[in-house]
């Protein structure tokens, strides 16, 4: 029997709780020794290598492939093309809900983006497969590529992101603008960005009859099993995904992609294990990216600097054949009080791979622009940017009026500003220089992120030796889930984390939900917590019903689990160890199970968000336009913190992603060919160590009695929000130049500004 | 007569390896992962950008065993003859414990997703053996070539500072076994030429420089590989056929640095790292510039000679060397000729190098005491970035304050590294004043018509190039304007 057990309340923390402790990560030893096994490190006997041949054009048709030349190459075993690709049981053009995407698996000869798979070569060696793919020498019928925001096809869309409404209106936006003393209005552009997890996407597929084992990095094990099962016409239980380690995901490993499906198909066709690992360049196409956006902000303010209207209109790019539009305008919904808010999106079709969720999808690009617009409005009102945000502080969720389950944003502002030394900042730009003559600027932004909760299941087994095994099919892509989840389980079980063995990262375990949306710790954590509570309850039943136990008859009074013993609540002295209870009961173990989900009533009644404030200092070389972020201070309130060490590193990671969003990351597309010219790590810039300045992340304490029974919110993505705008605003403060496109480039601050023209007319 | 053998011999961790089957373009990373099942080293980019594949390669320099971090993904197996390759699998601490580097990384939370971690560990290992208690600047330098997309750099910095509290370098296995390994490597270097393969799959490791010279005269279109930081990408990124390959990184005759009569002569096989000490001491402005070429692994592999010989318009050493008045010695067989460095660069992709000829050495004059030299590299990212524009200036003033001579050279402004002759002419003989500099700044259009690319626009390049001259002027007046904003600080 599985049970859903409500945790009393976060205030009821047990003595000596391991949760809240800054434990080092459990998987550290395996990682520093090189013994952590990533997907591409698996080499089953008899394995073949698969390499995708990819298109070099963005739009058109493949008219010829020299399959004979490829097949004639020594070692090449098979070449899959649209002509001979075995059938799939599910139409690849038909998306599998809830997070399914259309996949490119050689269903026809159409080319829709550069780096689309156009054939799969399978060979005895990696070298032969690579050479075979090169020998295919594709011929194309080329159509002109639609690249760049101004060249795409616009369309109306009912939904953005994953099923979010594309238009949300609160109040009368026109009336709000009409009532404004001043309206601040501008257009902004954000570029296509690529996840670029350090580990390229890889799979090793092995079939045994109608069962398949997949070694692959995966952020959503149960959903992926169901989707693979659909494609291959087998029960979901016949798909085993092993994903013990992910070399980063950031959203790109939550979604199925064509190359991996083709490799699995090849393994079935050839009845041998097949490995496929994408090259870095091949990751710029079929495995998702953050779509580019064109955004317009109109902020009406009254004489006191209070918003009368907030209009956020986004043109969000997607591919020609599927839809994932950055829900960027929705970043303007939960944050600032305004009698009228309108968030709306249009779609734009380009000849690219389909975008997907990338760390803070929508929130990152929407917040980047909103926070710059807020800065511009503050300046227009002659107000300090922080003062302006406080003047527009939302006490309840704007639009809906719902109370926040908890909101400690004021404390974030105050603590962040204090640590940064914000007071005394001159309002005017170009007023600060350092000892070397560099222009210095300070800027700030507000961080906000929603708190999703995914249904999850877990199992907790108390063993005769007094230790426990806890299990859930979660994913640790670097955030430290293995550690934090074990801490949560240990707390529920009244054990030290060292006594708790966590099994995770394999789909045969109870469904751990999705490692995404910053919701994994809360989702899988609550399931583990509940399973632990269930196991303890079963153990307590054994003890309290046993006349030989010192706990006999304590049923109504209750017992408490602590340090591997059950104690009578009313009599500390009466206790018994788990081992003793199990031994006398003649049981090797007691198993607790649980399912956990959010109470829909709680979600309906509250607005659920993490909050934060980010303060940035930049220095700009006035002669060369080089920008360096020199200080970043973030203060974040995200409910209860399970492991401050891990959480701090998540905040840092998000903030550093904010640096690269503001100053570095951009896939540059050749307008003529649609090719990405920097599809590598040399010229697609991600931050190096030296780009990372003095960082400070302040953990603002916050008790949230509603968000979930653990009181845990998410921390993985919020750091990027707020930071991008803070940096852009600091650049303005340093230079007086307002750059309205990201990333801010060298020439923007030296030569002249590339004006962003309006996407929407005026 | 040169002895010839048909196998590459090296040490891999604790094992002697002799390979008679080696493709000329086989990378060390493929060898480790595919042939040896040593999969702790990861492939993140296959072009030397991310450092996830970092291993140490030990080799004898003047009889001394030196271990350096390298990118296994662009290092060819054929270049390893006589070397000791050390991978993450070889690390061990005392009495079965973790190695100090590893324990520090665990304790300071230095790994997140972990994919980059083996590379970071190896880079830190290489540093720790050289500098057990490094300053932050040294740590930063050692980590320039390692990317972490989880961006856990701060924790890694903390770990790096703490390593020596976990153990002593003297007890490290590589230190303990140093004498034995040195002896083994000495034996492996038997003075033979190595030749492996036939037809389109040939590699040659010359016995010495004379042997190299004779090989070049007899081979049709060989690919000369010194550090492979460029040619490695021809293979991994562009799948180019590079056979026959002649590896020269090991040739002692090309690895010499000498100083004579104010001239620093650098053999074509000298790496950036090896050249750093002499160049940064004799010409201090070159130190910070060399520090920002690639990452540590690339500097440990890449050679000054290769940076010149490949003729790239954005190579970082030609502009300062041209400004300094460097000359280049080319050799064909036994014949040598020496030309001004700028004359070597004829056009994009075209250099003054005849078939059978090779770059033997570059000779860099040390600026006179009364002259002023500076070089500036402009990049968007702080480290590990390809140059948008690079300017180098050498000024000598006459007693009356006029410009006796000025040499100005840029990279990233033309199809080759190029001198700003019109600007030089406008300044020469004039008073070294702001007004004169401003007047000369109008001459840039005569010298350069830069391109727009994703690193910078033409307009930016032109303006930044001019501004560099003004900055150089300001600095020559005692103005303080370093190009780099202050670096990493930890709260």
TrEMBL record, chain A:
Domain Aldehyde oxidase/xanthine dehydrogenase a/b hammerhead, first and last residues per copy: 33-144
UniProt-listed SMART domains: Ald_Xan_dh_C
Region (Disordered): 1-27
Superkingdom of this protein's organism: Bacteria
One Pfam family hit: MoCoBD_2
Molecular function terms from GO: iron ion binding; oxidoreductase activity
Protein name: Xanthine dehydrogenase family protein molybdopterin-binding subunit
Organism of provenance: Mesorhizobium zhangyense
């Amino acid at each position: 029997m599985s049970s859903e057990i409500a945790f009393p309340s976060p205030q009821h923390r047990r003595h000596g709780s391991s949760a809240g402790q800054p434990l080092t990560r459990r998987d550290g030893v395996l990682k520093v020794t090189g013994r952590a096994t990533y997907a591409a490190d698996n080499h089953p006997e008899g394995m073949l290598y698969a390499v995708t041949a990819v298109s070099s054009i963005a739009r058109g048709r493949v008219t010829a492939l020299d399959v004979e030349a490829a097949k004639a190459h020594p070692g090449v075993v098979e070449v899959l093309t649209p002509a001979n690709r075995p059938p799939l049981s599910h139409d690849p053009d038909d998306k599998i809900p809830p997070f399914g995407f259309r996949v490119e698996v050689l269903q026809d000869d159409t080319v829709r983006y550069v780096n689309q798979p156009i054939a799969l070569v399978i060979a005895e060696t990696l070298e032969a497969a690579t050479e075979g793919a090169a020998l295919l020498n594709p011929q194309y019928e080329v159509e002109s590529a639609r690249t760049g925001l101004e060249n795409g096809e616009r369309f109306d869309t009912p939904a953005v992101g994953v099923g979010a409404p594309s238009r949300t209106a609160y109040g009368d936006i026109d009336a709000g603008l009409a009532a404004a003393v001043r309206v601040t209005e501008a257009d902004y552009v954000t570029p296509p960005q690529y996840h670029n997890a350090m580990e390229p996407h890889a799979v090793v597929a092995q079939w045994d009859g109608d069962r398949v084992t997949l070694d692959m990095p995966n952020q959503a094990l149960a959903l992926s099993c169901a989707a693979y099962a659909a494609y291959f016409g087998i029960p979901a239980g016949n798909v085993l995904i092993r994903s013990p380690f992910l070399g980063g995901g950031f959203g790109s490993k939550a979604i199925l992609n064509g190359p991996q499906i083709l490799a699995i198909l090849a393994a079935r066709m050839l009845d041998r294990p097949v490995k496929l690992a994408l090259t870095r360049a091949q990751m710029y196409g079929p495995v998702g990216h953050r779509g580019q956006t064109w955004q317009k902000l109109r902020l009406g303010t009254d004489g006191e600097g209070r918003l009368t209207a907030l209009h956020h209109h986004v043109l969000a790019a997607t591919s020609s054949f599927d839809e994932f539009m950055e829900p960027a305008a929705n970043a303007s919904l939960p944050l600032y009080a305004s009698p009228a808010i309108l968030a709306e999106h249009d779609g734009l079709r380009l000849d690219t791979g389909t975008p997907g969720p990338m760390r803070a999808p929508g929130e990152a690009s929407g917040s980047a622009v909103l926070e710059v617009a807020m800065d511009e409005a503050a300046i227009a009102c002659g107000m300090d940017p922080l003062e302006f945000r406080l003047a527009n502080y939302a006490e309840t969720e704007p639009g809906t009026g719902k109370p926040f389950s908890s909101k400690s944003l004021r404390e974030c502002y105050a603590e962040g500003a204090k640590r940064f030394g914000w007071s005394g900042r001159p309002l005017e730009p170009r007023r600060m220089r350092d000892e070397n003559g560099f222009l210095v600027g300070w800027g700030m932004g507000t961080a906000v992120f929603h708190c999703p909760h995914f249904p999850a299941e877990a199992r907790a087994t108390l063993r005769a030796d007094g230790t426990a095994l806890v299990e859930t099919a979660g994913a640790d892509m670097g955030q430290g889930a293995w550690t934090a989840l074990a801490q949560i389980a240990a707390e529920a079980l009244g054990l030290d984390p060292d006594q708790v063995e966590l099994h995770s990262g394999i789909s045969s375990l109870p469904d751990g939900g999705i490692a995404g949306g910053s919701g994994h710790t809360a989702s899988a954590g609550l399931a583990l917590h509940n399973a632990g509570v269930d196991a303890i309850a079963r153990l307590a039943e054994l003890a309290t019903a046993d006349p030989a136990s010192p706990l006999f008859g304590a049923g109504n009074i209750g017992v408490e689990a602590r340090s591997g013993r059950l104690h009578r609540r009313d009599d500390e002295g009466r206790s018994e160890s788990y081992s003793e209870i199990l031994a006398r009961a003649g049981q090797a173990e007691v198993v607790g199970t649980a399912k956990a989900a959010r109470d829909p009533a709680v979600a309906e009644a509250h607005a659920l968000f993490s909050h934060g404030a980010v303060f940035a200092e930049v220095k700009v070389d006035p002669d060369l336009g080089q920008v360096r972020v020199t200080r970043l201070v973030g203060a974040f309130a995200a409910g209860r913190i399970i492991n401050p060490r891990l959480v701090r590193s998540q905040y840092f990671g998000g903030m550093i992603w904010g640096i690269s969003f503001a100053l570095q990351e951009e896939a540059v597309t050749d307008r003529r060919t649609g090719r990405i010219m920097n599809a590598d790590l040399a010229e697609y810039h991600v931050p190096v160590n030296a780009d990372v300045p003095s960082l400070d992340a302040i953990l603002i304490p916050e008790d949230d009695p509603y968000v979930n029974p653990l009181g845990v919110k998410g921390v993985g993505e919020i750091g990027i929000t707020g930071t991008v705008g803070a940096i852009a605003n600091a650049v303005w403060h340093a230079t007086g130049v307002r750059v309205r496109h990201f990333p801010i480039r060298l020439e923007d601050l030296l030569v002249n500004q590339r004006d962003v023209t309006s996407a929407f007319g005026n | 007569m040169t002895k010839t053998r048909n196998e590459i011999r090296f040490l891999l961790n604790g094992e002697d390896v002799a390979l008679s089957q080696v493709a000329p373009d086989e990378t060390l990373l493929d060898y480790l992962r595919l042939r040896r099942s040593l999969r702790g080293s990861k492939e993140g980019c296959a072009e030397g950008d991310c450092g996830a594949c970092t291993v140490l390669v030990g080799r004898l320099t003047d009889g001394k065993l030196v271990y350096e971090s390298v990118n296994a993904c662009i290092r060819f197996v054929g270049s390893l003859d006589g070397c000791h390759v050390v991978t993450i699998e070889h690390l061990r601490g005392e009495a079965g414990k973790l190695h100090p580097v590893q324990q520090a990384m665990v304790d300071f939370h230095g790994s997140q997703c972990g994919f980059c971690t083996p590379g970071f560990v190896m880079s830190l290992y290489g540093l720790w053996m050289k500098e057990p208690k490094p300053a932050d600047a040294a740590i930063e330098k050692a980590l320039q070539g390692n990317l972490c997309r989880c961006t856990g750099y701060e924790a890694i910095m903390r770990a790096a500072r703490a390593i020596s509290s976990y153990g002593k370098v003297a007890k490290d296995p590589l230190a303990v076994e140093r004498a034995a390994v040195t002896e083994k490597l000495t034996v492996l270097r038997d003075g033979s030429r190595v030749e492996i393969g036939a037809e389109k799959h040939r590699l040659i490791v010359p016995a010495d420089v004379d042997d190299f010279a004779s090989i070049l005269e007899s081979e049709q279109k060989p690919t000369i590989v010194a550090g492979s930081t460029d040619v490695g990408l021809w293979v991994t990124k562009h799948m180019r056929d590079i056979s026959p390959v002649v590896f020269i990184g090991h040739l002692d005759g090309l690895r010499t640095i000498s100083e004579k009569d104010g001239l620093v002569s650098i053999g074509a096989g000298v790496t950036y790292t090896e050249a750093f000490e002499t160049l940064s001491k004799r010409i201090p402005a070159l130190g910070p510039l060399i520090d920002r070429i690639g990452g540590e692994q690339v500097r440990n592999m890449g050679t000054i000679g290769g940076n010149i010989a490949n003729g790239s318009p954005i190579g970082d050493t030609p502009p300062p060397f041209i400004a300094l008045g460097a000359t280049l010695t080319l050799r064909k067989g036994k014949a040598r000729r020496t030309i001004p460095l700028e004359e070597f660069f004829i056009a994009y992709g075209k250099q003054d190098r005849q078939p059978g000829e090779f770059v033997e050495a570059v000779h860099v004059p040390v600026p006179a005491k009364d002259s002023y030299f500076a070089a500036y590299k402009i990049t968007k990212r702080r480290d590990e970035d390809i140059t948008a524009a690079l300017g180098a200036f050498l000024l000598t003033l006459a007693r009356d304050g006029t410009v006796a001579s000025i040499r100005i050279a840029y990279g990233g402004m033309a199809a080759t590294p190029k001198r700003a002759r019109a600007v030089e002419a406008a300044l020469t003989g004039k008073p070294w004043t702001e007004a004169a500099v401003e007047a000369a700044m109008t001459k840039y259009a005569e010298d350069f018509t830069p391109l727009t690319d994703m690193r910078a626009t033409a307009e930016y390049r032109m303006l930044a190039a001019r501004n560099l001259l003004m900055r150089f002027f300001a600095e020559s007046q005692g103005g303080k304007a370093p190009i780099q904003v202050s670096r990493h600080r930890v709260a």
